[in-house]
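Attaching the record inline, Q. Sequence:
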Amino acid sequence: MGDSENNNNYGEDDEFAYSFPLIDGAGEALRHMSPGDLLILGMADVAYVRPTVEDDEEVYQICAADGTVLATLDNYQHALSTIGYNDLRAVPLH
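Structure, as predicted:
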């Protein structure tokens, strides 16, 4: 997919690189929205994975659009699978 077809800022190796086609300017606005703003827009069915460190080990938190931690897993791929299994849509966190 060429640059003219990809209006987002995700790299080609990014798993979500082509999952989110954006209208010109929309991506910038979305990046500056708070979790509460996203929730108001109907983002109750989306979740994101946030890497963090607990007890000196990297873990992956599954978070709702408002930032509420829904689960903590030790594997990124398991976190993504869990999101899908629970009928949520994974969105990238940048």
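The chain has two domains: 1-32, 43-94. Residues 1-32 form one domain.

More tomorrow.
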